[in-house]
Amino acid sequence: MSQWSQVQQLEIKFLEQVDQFYDDNFPMEIRHLLAQWIETQDWESAANNEAMAMILLQNLIIQVDEQLDRVSQEKNLLLIHNLKRIRKLLQGKYHGNPMHIAVIISNCLREERRILAAASMPVQGPLEKSLQNSVVSERQRNVEHKVSAIKNSAQMTDQDVKYLEDLQEEFDFRYKTIQSLEQNDKNSALIKQEMLALQAMLNTLDYKRKEVLSKIGRVIHEIDMLMSNMLTEELLDWKRRQQIACIGGPLHGGLDQLQNCFTLLAESLFQVRRQLEKLDELLTRLTYDGDPIPVQRPQLLEKVNFLLYNLFRNSFVVERQPCMPTHPQRPMVLKTLIQFTVKLRLLIKLPELNYQIRVKATIDKNVSTVSNRRFVLCGTHVKAMNMDESANGSLSVEFRHLQPKEMKTSAGSKGNEGSHMVTEELHSISFETQVCLYGLTINLETSSLPVVMISNVSQLPNAWASIIWYNLSTNDPQNLSFFNNPPAATLSQLLEVLSWQFSSYVGRGLNSEQLNMLAEKLTGQPVSYNDYQLSWAKFCKEHLPGKSFTFWVWLEAILDLIKKHILPLWIDGYVMGFVSKEKERILLKDKTPGTFLLRFSESNLGGITFTWVDQLENGDVTFHSVEPYNKGRLSALPFADILRDYKVIMADNVPENPLKYLYPDIPKDKAFGKHYSCQPNEVSKPSDGGVKGYVPSVFIPVSKILNDSTEPHSPSDLLPMSPSVYAVLREHLSPTAIESAVS
């Protein structure tokens, strides 16, 4: 079943979550019509490879054209209209930046997988629940409402300033007219009456000046309160959601909404600044005793400038954290001399700033790290922010060609380059720029989340564990000494994050039974893990009891095994995986003989095995488990084919496949049939491949079980034997002869 088919079967509350991240950037119609094709493309790699992204975009448009031809024949006018609109959108919006559509589709597929994983959980995880807090959603709506109200107030004050300007011009004209009269004329009753009118007008001017200043003060106060409270909280929440998304959690959104709020507030502040400048202009033309402008205007202007400085400083954010294109699902782990990408955005989107802001990237600037190693960034480390590279028109800059390089020590040799790097050392990528606008000069700085530097990809698993633990445990974006004394983590939150590793990396999260097994593995006993605290050492540094590896190394090896060798079977949900030997026997003991299940090895790294139940002649139940298959053996023979062709020889019996039903009662071929690489026992012709003149051979997994043993003697030995040869053996030879042949 395709991922999209699974999504469509979700409950309405989960479908509403899916609906939230499909919009005009990637219409749901295309996701629906091209579901199978979309899910077979490598969008993650394309998100960091422009040439690959362009090919996928062109192929996507071709797929849309084919759908358009089909619906045209069916005369479906509405769908024809929508597809033409979508085709135009894809060509116009992404032709100049094809990687953006790859990022969008990759994120949508990942978010679908996460929602499917969440739907399989009996309850929502604690982290995800906190991120979807109704109070947070209400605050978001309040922020948008208040920003809109502030913008309206600033515009209304503009009208008041204009009225004040018109009133002052009238006063100025009438006053100058009287001043131009002869002295004798000034003593007339009419002139005295005009002077009284001018005094009344001056009183009105004074009142209006005070009123305008009061309104400007209220607007400034509202902006100050909004920035100090709700907007700051919104920004911190977005940064926290970004942290969680980086370690596999829910896709973080809301940056466009924040950009809209920041931009409107900046526009309002600049509008207020212009109003204060206009008041200064009016002051130079007319002042009087008790004039409020020279008293209040400097204080208000100082406050406006202060708010603009803070608004700009908070608006400079890392939109996409540092990440190597080769490992898109392992952000913040950087390898020396390997390029990484990072994207920054200024949330204040003003046309005047396009191509006017140059951003400089540095590493470990003004930071005392716990490491003696020092790095420099090679490649293009200064670029201008612009609105042209992003499909949504945001003011941003993306560094795509940065490389970290370790500096030489004072002794003249590189510090630890090439040696075993400590994967708990944290470093920081910093960015600085300067904004010059309307007479203001504002210096801006921001930093990435802490990154881990490695010199060899073999260090990546432990480095990624450090990234997970840091971002799970703290909101602090710059605690580079975190691992001097790493705090414990709540087991319930850690298990939720571990499930995200599977949903984001291999397409299917873990259910409650699988998580329970991992909890027991981590703690060594059945626990109520809602408030259980687990140490960093237990997770990543201490070996499992009786093993030569840690829990995390064991789990990471399983992720790698799934990704490279059994991904379709895992996504279909046919791999139980995390179940102990004791539990598997409880599950199988009452099942039909030949029922089997698939589980990951607890003693071998990156191994998968299967166990089946059998019944002896006396009615006793017995269990058989094969030696775990590792990546080396699975590279030679697909796992689905192993399950199909696996044979067991017992005593003088004919070799037969003991695997009949996948637990609980799914016929084996029904579960795995679509994943078989070819039909079994087909007679191959000499010209069907391989070396000319030879019949191609295949590997047949065979085990021999002795009478006095319940376990395969030489588990899953791979014997080179063509399907046609095996078919002939079964047809013409006795069981004893076959046993001799395969032994």
Describe the structure concisely.
This protein has 743 residues and is of the alpha+beta class. It has 24 helices and 20 strands. Helices cover 50% and strands 14% of the residues.
Write up what this structure looks like.
The structure is a single chain. With 743 residues, the chain is of the alpha+beta class. The protein folds into 4 domains: 3-120, Orthogonal Bundle (Transcription Factor, Stat-4); 137-313, Up-down Bundle (Glutathione S-transferase Yfyf (Class Pi), Chain A, domain 2), CATH 1.20.1050.20; 324-407 and 421-455, Sandwich (Immunoglobulin-like); 560-678, SHC Adaptor Protein (2-Layer Sandwich), CATH 3.30.505.10. The protein is 50% helix and 14% strand. The chain contains 24 helices and 20 strands. The strands form 6 sheets. A 5-stranded mixed beta sheet has the order 15-14-13-17-18. Helix 6 packs antiparallel against helix 7, helix 6 packs across helix 8 (98-120) and helix 10 (134-179) runs antiparallel to helix 11 (189-246).
What is the strand and helix layout of this fold?
Elements (H helix, E strand, L loop, with lengths): L2 H6 L3 H9 L7 H6 L1 H5 L3 H4 L3 H25 L2 H18 L3 H23 L5 H6 L2 H46 L9 H58 L8 H31 L7 H23 E8 L9 E3 L4 E7 L11 E6 L11 E4 L3 E3 L10 E12 L22 E9 L2 E8 L4 E3 L5 H14 L15 E2 H15 L6 H12 L9 E2 L1 H5 L10 H21 L9 H8 L6 E6 L7 E8 L5 E5 L5 H6 L2 H7 L1 E4 L10 E2 L3 E2 H5 L26 E7 L11 E4 L2 H10 L2 H8 L1
